[in-house]
Structure formats: structure tokens, C-alpha cells
Amino acid sequence: MMTKRQILFSICFLISVFPLFAQKIKGRITDLSGQPIPGSTVYIRETMQGIVCNEDGAFQINMEVGDYWVEFRSLGYETEQKKIHVSDSEEVVVEVILKEKSFSLGEVVVTGDEDPAYEIMRQAIAKAPFHAQQIKSYHSEVYQKVKLKLLALPKIPGMKMETDDGINLNDYKNKLFMQESFNEIRFTTPDKYEQTVKGFSSTIPDNMNPEEVFRITKSSLYQPTFAGLTSPLHPKAFSYYRFRYDGFLEEDGQVINKIRIIPKLNDPLFVSGYIYIADDEWNIRFAELHQKVMGSTQIYTITYDPVAESIYLPTTYQIESAISLMGVKAEASYLSSTKFIDVLQNDSIILQEKKKKEKRSLEIKPDTAYVVKSDSLAKSRDSIFWDEIRTLPLSKDELLSYKRKDSIQAFTDSIRKNYHNTKFELKSLLDGGKIGGDSTLFSLNYGGLLRIIPEYNFVDGFWLGQRFDLGININKHRPLHFIPSIYYVTSRKRVLWEGVLTLGYAPRRLGKVELSAGSTTSDYNPEGALRIENALNSFLWGRNRSMLYQNDYIRMKNKIELAHALRLTVEVDLSKRRSLENTTSNVLFAKKDRITSNLVTDSHFDRVRYDLGLEYTFNQYYEFYDGRKIYRRTNSPTIGLSFSQNHPMNNSDNKRSQFLEANIKQSVKTGLFSTFLYSLNAGTFLGSRQQMNFADYKHFNTSDLMFTGKNSFDSYMLLDYYTHSTNEHWVAGNVNYYSQYILLKRLPFLQGKVFGETIGAKYLYTPNKKNYMEVGYSVGLGKLLNIGVFSSFNDLKYDKIGVRFAIDLSAF
User: Fold this and answer.
1) How far, in Å, CA of 105 to CA of 9, rounded?
2) CB count, 10 Å around CB of 331?
3) In 3D, which of 736, 737, 732 has the Cα closest to residue 719?
4) Cβ 63 vs Cβ 88: under 8 Å
5) CA proximity to 300, closest of 291, 308, 292, 309
């Protein structure tokens, strides 16, 4: 039996959550033919509350007893106003029919040949900073609903549509997932938000924490960017958009202008659609914006209503997304209905030129301007609470989503549990796999039989073997990895092996120590042809691109941050090296006379090498995540200085050598669509250079293949792998201008496509090969993938031209 205190507490709780003597207003908005008007909105003046109707035009809301002026509206229809009386005896049912309404062009003032929309937009753009600062603070309640449905996935042989923790996305197709929340929002100028989650319900797997609620849409069209897009009220909007006057209508004695937004470029950063601007006040009353990204579309619909004298704020947001990208099809939607409880106007708006920026901390800290809190009862709200809070009824699909919520979560948990405790399976012998996982002390990755032959060259023959990765989860801040590989080479009839042991330490200073050893073949130019490039070209066409030597080594390397963004690298390498000759000539499609003899230098050129390097990045932003430092963005240069010294050992034919080199590189964002990148490297060998082995020369990042696994930004695309290597001094550099719009992308049917364009130039000076230059033009996905035409020059004289297809394999 309840005590008096419990009864009193229950009464107080009910009073705090639900107003006394409340009744539900429910209704439906249709057109003259009786068809529902999806996305139509309702605004209640007395409570300053906006409501979005569902696809059936239906809405519902609980109101206290009283009289209310309610506006019903939708784009293209006349606004209907009704005075509604709410009593304590029965709910109110409203059937609203909206009549279509066209916008009148009327008499507008035309200056010259200029569309009148431009003068309206000038006024709105000039007034945008004022409207962005009109509010000092507000208190509101927001109901949000987010819906997601995966419709289709690409069918690619051999590719699993799985997440990192083993979840197969095909198991979630054609199922609706949703999240509902009821939130209390407190805003304080300029950008502080406090979101308290009062009610939270989600059918999205693993989305069980109320503080993982979707944040309210705080982006403003009065700012230069809106949701990552370029606002039509951007200070430079006339550079990005054309505008067209499509008429006006009158509401409450005010003229509302309909302005069509037409992007000058069909790019995902721009929007199209309509914006409605009020005369004299030059504020936004309504916006319908469209964004297109490679076949996917998003539609933003925003309604602004009066919340104080001459102040209009968004009361409803709707975002509809239809995603169709590379075989992935999905649909998503977001809606919010806002009730403003208290709005305080900013009486001290100061519009002035930008002040000199104060020095900011480079540490990226968690967003303290936007705080999400959760009521202790947010997750446990019952159906009565949600029936009172929801501003639109649940559909059949939404009810089904709630019904199967628990079974889908249980299924997801079981899949993840089995994945993180992976056991050996026979199929893993073929395609590789993993034993163990995040929750086990040991984990082992292995490549499988499909990767048993990773290489072929004319010195070794075929490599037969495997590479493994053993992880030991001793401490999350000190990951230990041992990566051994062992191969039998068929032509030399011997075993080659390598082992790399890495240990992370001092996670806040990016510490990492690496110990490696091996007996393998190495390229004289470590920046020359990739091993896979040499293997394919050798076996298929008899064109060996790599010159190899035997290398038995032991190496230790340590990296640590001395101060923020100042990184020290120390390396010691002991190597027994000797020349090798070709031992096989198996070729699939070409004659064997195309094979080049392997480079033979001194019989033995053993050495001990010491490397010391310093690198510093100006204005390097960073953050700490889980106790570990992570570098983030920078727009400033990175400079480096390194010193290297070789000492001969074991009475080898090699001689002592040392060199010093410096470099600088930077990537600078130069506009909405463009980036300028450059790098410069220069150095010199010190002291005597006589009898220096070719393996110790300075080599360069080169590629001389039509199909290459290097990127065209950093590599010389037409330069031989060895002819420009030097033991004297050098200057090397490159500049690249990457943009979404240089030449081809300006064609209308290519605008908005995902690829960009690059114009680049490279330079190399060595005493033997002076003033080598390359220029090129390419299209592609940044450094990742490019197709381009390149031309080379020696001493400013034309040398050759070539087409290159480049995929940066280092990114995989």
C-alpha cells in the first residue's frame, strides 16, 4: 500500500510532466480533393509551437484548456487560421482543407536588366549578421524523430558487407530503424547550447544511451555555411548563386518574396530551391533547399515563426534523404517540432569589422559549447508519456520497428560476441582471417592461401610463404605487435624472412619503438618501383623494374615527440649486403631477351648506418582520445632536418659517407574547391664520396610505368628509377594545384561529380642530370586515384610525353 509521501510524490511528478486539465488536439490537413498534404505544418501562436505533419497530413498535440489561434500551412497553399477552444471534457478533432495559392508577380522595380531578386538578396545578406545575433537566450522544448532504412547493398564477389566488428549489413536491409527524443533546450549567445534529454526511445541497434541522442539542428541560414553547405545568405553568395524573383504573397499585411536559388555550379556544396524573404525586415520566413550528391538527394524544409517582436525563429525542421551511391540505396528522414517557452532579445547587437583573431589553443577539446545531459528517467518513459509528447501518430512501419527492437538487439549482440572471440575456420585457410580479438590476450591475422605467392623477380624466382600479424593486448596504451614473414624463393632455393616488433609507449607523446631483422632482397632505390609492380612486369612482359641485392640486417628505430609537433626519429641499421645476379628467366607473354641484367656493384658492401631526424609542424592541431594523442588538421608548413652517416664494416668494399638534408612541405586550402600543395627537398653529401656504393646514394621517388601504384602528386611520372640517383648534392621539389573546377569539370554534365582536377609541376637538380622538369594534368580522387598526361624536359628541352594511370597503393 502506498504511503502518503509516495502518493504526494506521484502527484507532484504527474503535475511536473503533464499539465492538468489537458486535452489532445488532433487533425489532418488535406487539399481540395481530399488528398493529404505531407510535411504541412501547424503553428500555435499562444505557445509559440510548431508541428510537422506526417505523410498522411496528420498531427496531434496535448494542450491545456483555453482558446488558441492556430495556423495551418504548406508551401503553395493559402494559410488557414482557426480559433480553437480546448475544453476538459473531450478532445478536439480538426479537419483542415488548404486551397492552392499562386504567387503574384505584381509590380516590381527593375533596375536595368537586373532581376529584382538581387536587390532583395542584397538587403537580406546585409541584414543576416543582425538576424544571427538577435537572440540573447532562449528556452525551448523539442520533439525529434529520426528514421533510417537500408534498401540495397552492392553485390561484389568476394567482398563482405561487414562492419569492423563483424556485423553483416545485409541482415538489416528493409528494416526501419528510428530514434525519438523529447528535449529541453537552453541557448545562450553566441553559441552555447544545453540539451537535456527528457525522453529517449530508439530501435537503432546499440543506440541505448540517451546522451547519444541526435543533436538539434543548430545550423543557421544566416551564417555563411548551413549544415556544411554554402548558405544563399553567404557574404559571397553572388559568386556562387544566381537568383530569380518568382513573385510574392501577403501575410498579415507583410509582403513575402519568393526567391529561387540557382547554383552557378552543380556542386554538392551548393543548394538549389526557394527562400522566402519578408520586405523591410529582410528575414527568412520559409526555406526549401535541395542538395544533390552523385544521385543522392537531400531536401531541407524549414519554417520560421514569430517568437518575439520582429523575431522569427525556426519552429519546424524537415530533412528527407534518398541515398543512391555505388549500389547502396537507403532513405532517411529527420523532423523536429519546437515549442519556445522563453525568448530573450539581444539589445546590444554590435555589427563591426572582424577583430584580430586571438591566439587559440591548438588542442581540440570536446565541444563544451554544446552540452548533452540526460534525465534519469529518459530511457524508462512509458507509452503514456510518449502519447502525450508525440506531435504525430506512429505509422504501421514505426510500430513494427518498436515491436522487433529487442530481437534485433539480441541478434546484433550475438554476432559481435562471436566475432570478437573468433575461432579458426577451414575457409580461413583460403582467404585468410583472424584468431582472437579485442577481448582476448592474443590475436593473430594471417593472409591465407590466396596470398601465398606475393612476389616474383628474376633474382629470386617465386616467393612461397606467408606473413602474419600477432597482437598482444597487454595495455591499450602500449600495443605490442610482432609481424613475421617467411618465404621460400624457388630459383635461389633458400629461405628469406623478416620480423618486425613494434611497441607503442608514452601515448601522449606518440612514442613508438620498432625492432626489426631479416634476411631478404632489397632494392637499390627504396623509392623506386613497388615490388608488386616489378613482379607483374617481370612475369608478364619480361620487363624487370627493380635492381636487387641481398640484405641481412638488424635495425632499431625510435620515434618520440620532444615538444608539441616536434618529432625526433633515431635509427640504427646494421646490414650485411652483397650483389646478386639474375637466376631465372620465366616470362609469360614476352621474349626473354627483354630481361635486363641485375645491377652488380661491389661483392660486399656491409655497413652500419645512423640516422637522426627532426620534424616540426607549425600550428598542428591535435586532440587526446582515450589517453592517446592524435594529430588533426593543419594549414601550415612542416619542416624537417635529417643527418645520416654510413660506416663500413667487415672489411667491405664500401666507404664511409654522410649526408645532410632539409625539406619543407605544405597543403593550403585556397578556396571552397581548391588546394595548393608543395614540397621542397635539398641536401648534400659531406666529405669524401669515393668508393661509395650505389645502394647508399640519394635516390628519388620515381615511376616510369603507364599503370603505377604511386600517386602522381609526389612521384616523378616519367623518370627512370636509377639514372638520376646521386652521391653529390640535389634539389627536388613539386607543386600541385588540385581543384574541383579547372577545365573538364566546368562542363555542365561533369559538375558535381566526385573527381577533381590537378595541374602539377616537378623539378629535380643533380650535378649529372641538371634541370629535369615534369608538368602534367590529371583527373581523379586527390592523391588516391589519377589518370593524367605528363611531359618531361631536360635543361628546358622537351624530352617525352606519357599517359599514366595511378592508384596510390600506400593508402590501402
Assistant:
1) 61
2) 15
3) 732
4) no
5) 291
Q: How far is CA 375 from CA 183, 184, 225, in A?
A: 10, 10, 32
Per-residue pLDDT tens over the stretch 47-58: 999 999 988 899
Task: Identify any residues that bridge with 483 across adjacent strands, giving them in sequence order.
Answer: 500
**For residue 337, how many other CB atoms are within 10 A of its CB?**
26
**Mean pLDDT computed over 108-132:** 86
177, 147 Cβ separation under 8 angstroms: yes
Closest to 70 (Cα-Cα) out of 91, 89, 96? 96
Residue 50 grid coordinates: 510548431
DSSP designation for 173: B
Asked whether the CA dihedral 404, 409, 410, 412 is positive or negative, the reply is: positive
Quick one: DSSP state of residue 561? E
Give the number of residues written for the chain: 812
Helix (H) or strand (E) holding 9: helix 4-17
- The end-to-end CA distance of the chain, in Å, is 67
**Residue 581, Cα to own-chain centre: how many angstroms?**
48
SS3 594: helix
Q: Are strands 797-807 and 707-708 parallel, antiparallel or unpaired?
A: parallel
**d(Cα 128, Cα 719) in Å, to the nearest integer?**
54
What integer is the mean pLDDT of 17-45? 81
Amino acid found at 148: L
Q: Which residues pair with 493 in a beta bridge?
A: none
Query: In the beta sheet, which residues pair with residue 523?
Result: 548
Looking at this protein, which amino acid is placed at residue 62?
Answer: N
CA atoms within 13 A on the CB side of 375: 18
Task: Report residue 68 CA to chain centroid gap.
Answer: 46
Task: Tally the C-alpha atoms within 13 A of residue 486's C-alpha that lie toward its C-beta.
Answer: 2
HEC profile of 624-669: EECCEEEECCCCCCEEEEEEEEEEECCCCCCCCEEEEEEEEEEEEE
Residue among 432, 239, 215, 242 at smallest CA distance from 336: 215
For cell 619543407, name the residue: 664
Q: Give the E-state strand segments of 309-417 in sequence order.
A: 311-325, 328-345, 370-374
pLDDT category of residue 7 using cuts at 50, 70 and 90: very low
Please, which residues bridge with residue 795 across strands? none
pLDDT digits 0-9 by tens, 630-646:
999 899 999 999 999 99
How far is the C-alpha of 118 from the C-alpha of 641, rounded, in Å?
54
Rounded Cα distance between 447 and 450, Å, is: 7
Helix (H) or strand (E) segment spanning residue 130: helix 117-132
Closest CA to 683 of 748, 728, 633: 728
Specify the pLDDT at position 105: 66
In our burial notation (b when 16+ CB lie closer than 10 A, e otherwise), range 577-616 reads bbbbebbbeebeeeeeeebeebbebbebbbbebebebebb
Overall pTM > 0.85: no
